[in-house]
Design goal:
By secondary structure, the chain is of the alpha/beta class. It has 8 helices and 11 strands. Helix 3 links the parallel strand 6 and strand 7. Helix 1 crosses helix 3. Bound molecules: iron/sulfur cluster (SF4).
């Protein structure tokens, strides 16, 4: 039996995939993006979050049966609204065996995996075999910049992108627009060239910068130190994608 740890379950979400969805936020992420707006998602362990409303514990352990039971309660509503379940994080690949078991217990619900792509190919394949759609984050193509701003190499992420495409699982590429970091013409153009023509690609979503990215750091005793100019306007350059024949939109 593989249990999982979850830091939030959000119902009636309309931004995490088609229709109305329940989004499960898994705790634990191998990356440490400077712009992460859910810093409590990074540690795989429960931790105390202190807010004006008082302290709360982020991180609840579930068995697959417990979590599937909670999610299946909403099955009729989710199906009626052409939605389903989205597994997000944190990083779902860190708990792939648990999620795979939960999916196997779902009542025929549409499944989206929202991933940064950093995980073993075997873990990814477990989820690809069960997902209806993948939201796949691409942040930086330059390896040194990727390591500098996320703490990890992008080698696995680029490898798993090819694995996903070969599996023909439909996917949406999501690019967080971080001012002066991921939104440069050079990086956006490199992403466009990389994904152009990949089997399975539905579109590219450019995600506007979240100005509240640093809001939660103090609540877990950390200092927000982004290392870029938050006030700089982002460069949502859709033209580089159009030039590469890629359907892209600003969400
Ligand atoms: S991949 Fe997502 S959850 Fe992980 S550190 Fe980056 S922004 Fe945060």
């Amino acid at each position: 039996m593989v249990n999982g740890i979850v830091f939030d379950i959000r119902e009636f979400s309309v931004h995490d995939g088609p229709g109305i969805r329940t989004t499960v936020f898994l705790k634990g992420c191998p990356l440490a993006c400077r712009w992460c707006h859910n810093p409590e998602s990074q540690s795989a362990r429960p931790q105390v979050v202190t807010s004006p409303a008082g302290p709360r514990l982020a991180g609840t352990v579930y068995t697959p049966e417990e979590l599937a039971g909670i999610l299946n309660r909403q099955a009729a509503i989710l199906k009626d609204n052409e939605g389903g379940i989205t597994f997000s994080g944190g990083e779902p690949l860190t708990q792939a065996a648990f999620i795979a078991r939960v999916i196997d217990l779902l009542d025929g619900l549409h499944v989206v995996i929202d991933t940064c792509g950093y995980g073993s190919e075997a873990s990814f394949r477990l989820l690809l075999a069960r997902a209806d759609l993948v939201y796949y984050d691409l942040k930086l193509i330059d390896p040194a910049l990727h390591r500098s701003f996320t703490g990890r190499s992008n080698r696995l992420i680029l490898h798993n992108l090819r694995v996903m495409s070969e599996c023909r699982t439909p996917f949406v590429i999501r690019v967080p627009l971080i001012p002066g970091v991921t939104d440069t013409d050079e990086n956006l153009s490199a992403i466009a060239q990389l994904v152009s023509g990949l089997p399975g690609l539905i579109r590219v979503d450019l995600l506007p910068y979240n100005p509240a990215a640093g809001a939660k750091y103090a609540a877990i005793g950390r200092k927000f130190d982004p290392g870029y100019d938050e006030a700089r306007p982002v460069n949502a350059n859709l033209a580089v994608f159009q030039a590469a024949g890629v359907d892209a939109r600003l969400t």
